[in-house]
Amino acid sequence: MGTSVGPSSGTSTGLSPQYQRLIQQTLRIESQPKIDLENQREQKKNKKSAVNDLDGKLSSLQTQLDTLTDTTTNPFEGRTASAEDGTTAFSVSADESASTGTHSLSVNRLASEDGRVSKEYTSGGSDIDNAFSSDQTFNVEVATPSDSGTDRKSIQVDVSASDLSGTNEEVLNNIKSAVDSAFQSAVDDGTIASDERPDVSVVNPTRDTARLSIRSSQTGYDGRLGFSDSTDGLLSSLEVNADQLANDTRGGELTEVGTDESSSKLTSEFTLDGLTLTRNASTVDDALEGVTINLDEANGTESNFEVASDVEGAKTVVEDFIDKVNEVITFLKEETDLAPNEGEERGTLADDGTFRRLDQQLRTDATSPVDGQPEGLNTLADIGIEANRDGTLKLSDENALEDAVRNNQDAVKSLFNSSDGVATRLENRVDQFIGAGDLLDSRTDSIDRGIDRMDDRIDQFDERLERRQQQLRDRFANVQSTIRSLASQQQAISARL
Q: Which of 18, 108, 196, 337 has its CA 20 to 30 A from that of 435?
């Protein structure tokens, strides 16, 4: 609501400019308390904005502190793994559970999918048609990995007698369609997942020959295919299930399946630290605890790889911690500045002792020695983090941090997350200020209530000034009318004389 100082309707219409200026000057003087309230309201709004900004910066700091105080995963326990230069046979990665050290590895064989083919048929011949004249039913066993291991699902395939009639290539395509249909039904009803479905095709080695091909989508001995033949031995006749290696004409296994993981050529084979190991996949995460090995090329060449402390990862977390602490301390320094020198501007939160104390408390929490730590690793300064004169932190000695992470990770970890650790102390301090019902919420609520009260008082002033304006207009209108009446009478008297 505002108060107009221009002409209004009614008895005050047509006031002379002189009277209007007098009214404006009077209202300007009498509006000063309202202006003072508006200035105070603006100050409170600025303070609320500063409190909200502080809340955001403390929340960002708290998130970083959560990372440092997490007892299940800690950035100082990170690991990196890297192969020596020129290694193409494998790549490695590691998590915090891995032990540091150097290992040798050579890749002898990659894991592969089980592939089966029928014997070779002359495309235009009628060998299959002549051998079978009734419906045939057989089963294909498919691997389905689960959390408890690898399950195996048997999928029934039905081939009608009519589908077994025609040329060899036509019959092979009909069998392919029947197998494909059975696999799709198994996917649709949830028996197997879509990525567990084997591939089925008819291949033509030459223009005049055809073979049925079935390939598993899973690698290793666990991913092998299995077969239960029809009563009349359709699969045996095709040699798809033959326990033999296929060649240019006969059917069977494209890769030797074997009888277990160690004898199967479907598995990956590698030599780790002198021990020859096999796995069902080319990604191996159970040969060394916490280390994942990706086998890429079976060249038999031995290369070394090293598992080491993740120094760069730890340094990044420390630098992020320093940045978040510095954001809060710099903000508090600016917003609580008392401006002791002439011409300086006081900070928005300068009159609030709680925030001035917080600045000093955070500095103390960050730089004080930590109880229970070994000598030489009980302050941030011992790992290369020093305090500037303005209270902000800086990583002044990267070598000190790197050496501590490499050689004494437990001490670095507890320097931050023990019961008296730097991050623990800061987190406890920050927790007092942010969160539902905590100090910053209380401050914001108090400021909002003050702003509401000021809004009410300003509205009351507006109403009072509006009434006062109308009162002055009416009064000066009466004065002006009286003066005009007297002037008219004077003119009349003068005319008679």
A: 337
Asked if residue 439 lies in contact with residue 432, where contact means CB atoms within 8 angstroms, the answer is yes
What residue type is assigned to position 488 of the chain? S
Cα–Cα distance for residue pair 417/57, rounded to 1 Å: 21
One domain for residues 247 and 377 = no
> Which range marks the domain in which residue 404 is found?
311-434
Inside any domain, residue 258: no
Q: In the Cβ-directed half-sphere of 33, how many Cα atoms lie within 13 Å?
A: 10
Phi-psi region of 274 (alpha: psi -120 to 50; beta: other; left: phi over 0): left
Find tokens 């295919």 and name the residue: 225
CB 310 within 8 A of CB 409: no
Q: Are the CB atoms for 159 and 178 separated by under 8 Å? A: yes
Does any domain span residue 51?
Answer: no
Among the listed residues 44, 43, 48, 40, the one whose alpha carbon sits nearest the alpha carbon of residue 441: 48
